[in-house]
Amino acid sequence: MELNAYIDHTLLRPSASEAEVLRLCQEAQHYRFASVCVNPCHVALAAGAVRGTAVRVCSVIGFPFGTHVTEVKCAEAQRALDDGAQELDMVVRIDKVCAGEREVVEREIAQVAARCHARGAIVKVIVETALLDEMHIAFACSCVEAGHADFIKTSTGYASRGGTEGDIQCFKKYLKGETKIKASGGIRTRAQAQRFIELGCARIGTSNGVAIMEERAS
């Protein structure tokens, strides 16, 4: 698979305009990226812009801190799906991961995943690895799998750092099933993206997709 097919072309700035979202969608179609990832308020716009193409629409749930209560995350997910989202990146309750509250974490993931899967959509669970040690990452991997999420994702882009090679290796150490991995946060170059793919990532989240593709052309 070519690099472009791994990229979730991302625009999550709170100041992003509708014109910028439409440009994001045009770029995604031109470069044949896997998806566009936009804020919930822009899902319907993006869905209309890429309708009839292979580009999927992704949005975020409980973003960026994961501190929404489960009922709100479920409502967010339902609205995004109704607006045309095919993929949802949900921030887990990081405080509950750190506290080891398995039932709370697994139940929340499972509830959002069930809504997604009922509509033929996928869910990626963001665990914000910058805030976790290895023990917490192992716990998060277990919860993500138990909740039947499709992906585990490193980062929101709002913490002190994005995903690292060490994070990916840690995921691979503790994931036991078919859960896929998405790397994100600070991925700005072609070499970085390719390295994460070599490590086993199935998706790359980046707002620098065009620059990464143009790097090849130059």
Overall number of strands: 8
For this structure, the CATH topology of the domain at 66-217 is: TIM Barrel
CATH class category name of the domain at 66-217? Alpha Beta
Multimeric organization:
single chain
Shape: globular
Give the neighbour order of strands across the main sheet. Answer: 1-2-3-4-5-6-7-8
GO biological process, one term: deoxyribonucleotide catabolic process
GO molecular function, one term: deoxyribose-phosphate aldolase activity
Function: Catalyzes a reversible aldol reaction between acetaldehyde and D-glyceraldehyde 3-phosphate to generate 2-deoxy-D-ribose 5-phosphate.
Keywords: Cytoplasm, Lyase, Schiff base
Q: Any overview of this molecule?
A:
The protein has 218 residues and is α/β, with parallel strands linked by helices. It has a domain at 66-217: TIM Barrel, CATH 3.20.20. Helix content is 46%, strand content 17%. It contains nine helices and eight strands. The protein has an eight-stranded parallel β-barrel with strand order 1-2-3-4-5-6-7-8, surrounded by five helices. It is globular and about 45 Å long. It starts with 6 loop residues before the first strand and ends with a helix. The mean pLDDT is 98. Its main location: cytoplasm. This is Deoxyribose-phosphate aldolase.
